[in-house]
């Protein structure tokens, strides 16, 4: 028998991601569809799966291939067509179905991939079924499974209007003051979802928003810039347009529009931790008003201000590992009302514990539009500390580099944990010494260490950042 191929480079810890025609072919996609059916869908007692895809040219035929794998194993398929990832999560939640989203998110044009979920948008990751899908798909590439006695049936359903109406029911924007909003869709899915949700193209009523569109034409070759707002180079056009139009706010979405970055009226980038504070405080106030104790999840490299401000407002902040499958699991386990990550993924209990860039954007618009200050004025108390952002370093040996960091920085006057990588914190009471922390964690797939540092002041942050990087990169 031919050895089964190694799919670990394609089916990763959280999703499927690879180069179309090389790692990801129709044959591989069909095997993944069949493996998803046999490893997760059928054992869960499900009979139908929702499939959607983003604007990449390979999306429709990859969706066809996944559908072939599913229907071959007797699973029905509902095709919802073009959608954002949170649009697929909405379909999974509203229809109570497992789902497959064909997308490579923010990756360059040569890539595509998949995000899998159980019914009601429950995450499928390495420890919650994805490893089983990988193993079975690998086997099916050598020995394809037999066709089920009754093949699954296919149907189609248009969901974008229902998606928009659902989001508007969670965050009504009808009564806010008029706002001018520049949106950079990066030729990706926000060019489809923003007119549907914030405009009238899906048949919803008009909102008091003047939308100034940048790159709304769907084009998976990304002719203007990559659909990755985590890289600040990709925010320059948005920043310039906000200033040029005198806009109240700018929004930038990634390729599958499940992440949203915010730019204030000055054209300055607002950190995702600041948005976590803003939205977390809104959701905390709502939960308290309904007589419940609010829990908010944040990953461990979010700003220290997140836990401080949420605690002060009456929430219970809970720290999570980095990665959407971890934070979604914690959200569900604790019935948390909201969760935020440094990467601008924002999760909502009312949205099936899943992430939605559009819903996060609507919260910011609602907060801004129900008071008279500018966005920068409204947010000025939410970011008291200075963060480095994530800095990657390629190393010869991850264990050796971590050992060097421990030897250099773990002393009696710091707190240390290894919850996700190595976190070192020196944070005495105000006036009792320098306050800083950093986290160093390994990449799941490459010989990289990722550094995030924060301090009470820019000069101190830079000193800590540079000291840690020098140890990590020591030859």
What does this 3D model show about the protein?
With 475 residues, the chain is an alpha/beta fold. It has helices at residues 26-41, 59-72, 85-95, 130-140, 160-170, 190-197, 236-245, 272-289, 304-312, 324-334, 357-369, 375-379, 398-409, 458-472; strands at residues 16-19, 48-53, 76-82, 99-102, 111-118, 122-123, 154-156, 179-184, 209-214, 249-253, 260-263, 269-270, 295-299, 316-320, 338-340, 346-348, 354-355, 386-387, 391-394, 415-417, 422-426, 436-442, 448-455. Strands 1, 2, 3, 4, 5, 6 and 7 form a seven-stranded mixed sheet that branches. Helix 6 (190-197) links the parallel strand 8 and strand 9 (209-214). Helix 1 packs across helix 2 (59-72) and helix 8 (272-289) crosses helix 11 (357-369).
Topology:
Blueprint: E1 16-19, H1 26-41, E2 48-53, H2 59-72, E3 76-82, H3 85-95, E4 99-102, E5 111-118, E6 122-123, H4 130-140, E7 154-156, H5 160-170, E8 179-184, H6 190-197, E9 209-214, H7 236-245, E10 249-253, E11 260-263, E12 269-270, H8 272-289, E13 295-299, H9 304-312, E14 316-320, H10 324-334, E15 338-340, E16 346-348, E17 354-355, H11 357-369, H12 375-379, E18 386-387, E19 391-394, H13 398-409, E20 415-417, E21 422-426, E22 436-442, E23 448-455, H14 458-472
Parallel strand pairs: 2-3, 2-4, 3-7, 8-9, 8-10, 13-14, 13-15
Antiparallel strand pairs: 1-5, 4-5, 5-6, 10-11, 11-12, 15-16, 16-17, 18-23, 19-23, 20-21, 21-22, 22-23
């Amino acid at each position: 028998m031919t050895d089964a191929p190694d799919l670990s480079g394609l089916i990763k810890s959280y999703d499927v991601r690879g180069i179309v025609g090389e790692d990801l072919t129709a044959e591989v996609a069909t095997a993944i569809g069949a493996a998803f059916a046999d490893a997760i869908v059928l054992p869960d007692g499900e009979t139908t799966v929702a499939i959607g895809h983003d604007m990449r040219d390979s999306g429709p035929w990859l969706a066809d291939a996944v559908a072939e794998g599913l229907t071959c194993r007797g699973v029905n398929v509902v095709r919802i067509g073009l959608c954002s990832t949170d649009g697929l999560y909405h379909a999974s939640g509203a229809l109570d179905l497992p789902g497959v989203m064909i997308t490579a998110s923010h990756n360059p044009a040569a890539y595509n991939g998949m995000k899998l979920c159980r019914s009601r948008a429950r995450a499928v990751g390495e420890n919650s079924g994805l490893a089983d899908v990988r193993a079975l798909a690998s086997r099916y590439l050598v020995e394809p499974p037999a066709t089920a006695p009754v093949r699954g049936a296919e149907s189609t359903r248009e969901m974008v209007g229902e998606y928009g109406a659902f989001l508007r029911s969670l965050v009504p924007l009808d009564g806010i003051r008029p706002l001018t909003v520049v949106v950079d869709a990066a030729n990706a899915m926000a060019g489809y979802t923003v007119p549907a949700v914030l405009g009238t193209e899906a048949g919803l009523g008009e909102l008091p928003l003047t939308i100034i569109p940048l790159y709304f034409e769907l084009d998976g070759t990304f002719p203007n810039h990559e659909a990755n707002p985590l890289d600040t180079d990709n925010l320059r056009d948005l920043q310039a347009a906000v200033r040029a139009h005198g806009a109240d706010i700018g929004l930038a979405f990634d390729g599958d529009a499940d992440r949203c970055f915010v730019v204030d009226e000055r054209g300055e980038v607002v950190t995702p931790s600041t948005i976590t504070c803003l939205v977390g405080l809104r959701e905390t106030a709502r939960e308290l008003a309904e007589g419940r104790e609010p829990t908010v999840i944040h990953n461990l490299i979010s700003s220290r201000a997140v836990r401080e401000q949420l605690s002060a407002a009456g929430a219970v902040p809970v720290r999570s590992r980095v990665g959407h499958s971890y934070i979604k699991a914690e959200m569900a386990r604790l019935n948390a009302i909201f969760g935020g990550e440094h990467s601008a993924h924002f999760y909502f209990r009312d949205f099936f514990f899943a992430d939605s860039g559009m819903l996060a954007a609507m919260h910011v618009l609602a907060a801004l539009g129900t008071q008279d200050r500018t966005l920068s004025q409204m947010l000025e108390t939410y970011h008291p500390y200075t963060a480095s952002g994530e800095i990657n370093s390629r190393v010869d040996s991850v264990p050796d580099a971590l050992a060097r960091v421990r030897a250099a920085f773990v002393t009696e006057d710091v707190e240390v944990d290894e919850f996700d990588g190595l976190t070192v914190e020196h944070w005495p009471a105000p006036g009792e010494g320098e306050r800083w922390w950093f986290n160093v964690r390994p990449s799941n797939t490459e010989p990289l260490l990722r550094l995030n540092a924060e301090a009470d002041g820019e000069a101190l942050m830079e000193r800590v950042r540079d000291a840690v990087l020098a140890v990590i990169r020591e030859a």
